[in-house]
Amino acid sequence: MDNLTNSRERGAALLRDGRAHEAIELLREATAQSPADTMAWRLLGGALAQTSRPDDALVAFEQAAILQPDAAKNQYNVALTLMTLERKTEARERLERALALDPGYEQARLRLMELGGISSPPPLPPLTPPVPEQNLATLGGGSESIAPPPLSGPRYDRPGTPAASPVNGTVPLVLGILGVVLCGLLAPVAWVLGDNALRTLDAAPHLDQSPRGTALAGKVLGIIGTVLLVLSFLGGIGIVILGAVTDTKS
Predict the structure, then answer these.
(1) Which of 85, 101, 202, 247 has the smallest number of Cβ neighbours within 10 A?
(2) Do residues 156 and 205 touch, judged by C-beta distance below 8 A?
(3) In whole angstroms, how far apart are CA 207 and each of 39, 114, 138, 170?
């Protein structure tokens, strides 16, 4: 096994074991040995993000996007890091670019909704199984196809099935609907539960993000229901005051 592949695969193995700090050094070696290795840069970005170094992670993910600009996952990884850095305008542009490259990218679509980039999710095309990419690296003067190791660490974007999510987005959605149409007191609960669910998903992007849409809808309905509840309460107080004034004049 050549030094480049060895460093990259050992770094990926350390990421899988949750040893991101140790993986960083090996992955830096891999990118130094082959600056054109997109997968090594992507892995390095994931390791840096996992160790709470978003500025450095952004540099690595940007390099992967420069090397492979037509890969939607590279644009998504950059966008997610920009969101962590509170650079929302730039993150929105990257998410739009990811969706332009892959209109069926559901996670990018949900993130863009969260940033207010689109008002409602248009119908998604049928999902197709991902095709494993082949990463080309120049070895000994020739071009040799190397199967990239699986990405590990906090999910930005990696192939394979994401870890099961403990978040239940249905509960805040149901409470939000009930809070709007039936019992206004349920609306603040839906707001809090939906917000907590979104925070949990943001803190663990490697988990299954499918509950994000329902949690976001529940939070929005909770906000609407809470506003209606407050307005109703204020209206009731106004009626009582008006009645008291009328009785006094009588």
Answers:
(1) 247
(2) yes
(3) 21, 17, 34, 17
